[in-house]
Amino acid sequence: MKRVFYLSERIYMNNFGKKFAIAAITGIMSLAASMTAFAASGIKSVKINIKSDAITVGKPRNIDDVTVSTSGSNYSIDGVDFLEMGTDWQITDVPKITVHLAADDNYYFSVYKAEDFKITGGELIEARRENTSNDLYVDIQLPALTNQVSPIESVTLNNSGQATWSASQGASGYQVKLVRDNSSTIGGVQNFTTNSANLKYLLNRQGTYVLKVRALSSDAQKNGPWVTSNTITVSQAEAARNYNESQSQTSQSGTWQHNNTGWWYTLADGSYVTSSWRQINGEWYYFNADGYMLVGWQQVGGNWYYMDLNSGKMLSNTTTPDGYYVGISGAYSATGK
């Protein structure tokens, strides 16, 4: 009897030990899970890269025009949206977006100050942590549209040389170039303050012509793209007629203007001469790409010309002040000056 009791006791004790062991293991597992959660790593810096060049004055607001990426680790982008809704972008707008970031498993956001954020293409407004810091919402201000221009929607050129183009919101002026036979730019690049021009005097050779126009921003850093007109074909007879008319009106009436940089010549239609020769009151002048009259020796089209230092008029069939002879065309024919 004692032996049986002893065995029964052993069995009871063994079962108790097993129950205790199971409870202990369960507790250890729970503690391990708690320790794993407690050991989640903090994300101490956030890097966001933004490209928003597609946002343009006059264009409808579309979040697809904003490209956002991250160069950090252990988190990803969960959404991007504008802070302020509207229709078309206006030149007075300053776009703002919210970027929603989500932390990876076993990570949380531990960012507290502006220095924890590295943002390219925008400036931090504020950031908010939510969902026990697993989500981070970052408000960012994008570049202002103050100096942008809206796209030119259409450009039209007819056989009479009349050119028109749609106005661009925010434009300080327009650059225009006439291209013949897909190769030669006729008359150089010209600047206009209006959205129309009469270019008949440039249609003086047979061929096909297109006009290219772009809007100029006020700071010249965000000029619009070149927009091309329809193609016109000028016959030999039309070209001859245009040439004869241009010879009888060598110069459009205009006005000389001056500032601290130099002189330029503004025409009656609001344009001014750039990157080309212009005969004014019987004298020839050359204007650079910015529209300013050049003086002294200038190399144009592979030839050297001398422009009077005071008046700017080209010298011809004479000796220059520094002792070089220029021919009837104004060009110095020998190599160099």
From TrEMBL:
Keyword Membrane: no
Coiled coil: none
Signal peptide, first to last residue: 1-39
Annotated Cell wall-binding repeat ranges: 274-293
InterPro entries in the record: Cell_wall/Cho-bd_repeat
Assigned keywords, A-Z: Repeat, Signal
UniProt KW Transferase keyword: no
Family annotation (SUPFAM superfamilies): Cell wall binding repeat
Protein's name according to its UniProt entry: Cell wall-binding repeat protein
Species lineage: Bacteria, Bacillati, Bacillota, Clostridia, Lachnospirales
